[in-house]
Amino acid sequence: MEVSIPIRLPVPQTPPVQPQCAPSQAEVKIDNANTDNEVEIKDLCLRLSTKELCHCLGYICDEKQRHHMLRPAHVDELRVGDFSYISLASLLQGQSGIRLTRHERYKVASILASSLLQLQSTPWLAERMEKNNIFFCRQDNRVFVDRPYIRHSFPSLKSCPPCSNAPAQISLPPRFIARSSLSNLGILLLELCYGQPIENQDFRNIHLGPDGKPHNSTNYLTALDWAEMVCEEDPALEHIVKRCVFCMFEEKADLENKRFIQAVYVSVVEPLEKIIAKWAVP
Q1: Which of 148, 131, 272, 177 is nearest to 264 (CA)?
Q2: Which of 43, 78, 186, 203 is deepest in the core (most CB within 10 A)?
Q3: Is the pTM of this model over 0.85?
Q4: Residue ranges of the domains in the chain?
Q5: How far apart, in whole angstroms, are the C-alpha atoms of residue 147 and residue 107?
């Protein structure tokens, strides 16, 4: 059994950026309150599959013995009536008939960049941050862009025992993980800058395989070319996008290195926040 739940991404925060758990539709909070009357969650899938109505589903205990409370987020907290989820991919494709404004797209970009730094060392961030895994609450033609969710799958240990014949997972060096995470963010920033999915770019075709189909590096190679065009679309984003796509930082790429995290904040997150601030109403 595998359960996919939407994890609500945290709002941007100023440095020093400290990893934290993300609130979600099943909202997760660090809580030091007395939990004598609560249940420790040993199997997240099993607990989420229960139909009982309660104020708190229980708590998850991490390696530092902190209790992360799991509480249902009610619809009225979102100030909407009937709502549904819509993916960023659908919005960029225009399939829903809804188009995000540039201000809305940049606001999403700011939240995604900040969330990467806040959640990079927690289990709440999906392995790959991309438009198909990012969702928003929607009511009619209104999309709540300031509260994005990222879809995350949690396999049940009880129903999915490890297979002895399964190949061992290769542990990648930290610099590879950091570069991959930032290049994925760079692709999202490009898509949000132009309001178009990377798959729609004509020059992507030159990076397809001999069989005419995309391969693992197609989007990355396309992003390298696309990043060189950002200045024509919005000069303010050029340096930010290139920092991510080309991983241009003086510090060694490592998401566990506080100095590298600070460098990404100063070069990516903070400039995005300043761009958003220009739209602020006096």
Answers
A1: 272
A2: 186
A3: no
A4: 2-25+73-156+172-277
A5: 10
pLDDT, tens digit, 9 for 90 and up, residues 46-100: 777 665 656 677 777 777 677 766 665 443 333 334 678 889 999 999 877 888 9
Q: Can you name the CATH fold of 2-25+73-156+172-277?
A: Transferase(Phosphotransferase); domain 1 (1.10.510)
Residue 212 falls in which region: left (phi positive, over 0), alpha (psi -120 to 50) or beta: left
- Kindly tell me if the per-residue pLDDT of 189 is higher than 80: yes
CA dist., res. 68 & res. 29, Å (int): 5
User: Is 260 within 8 Å of 251 (Cβ atoms)?
Assistant: yes
Most confident of 71-80, 130-139, 229-238: 229-238
Hey, how many other C-beta atoms are within 10 angstroms of the C-beta on 16? 10
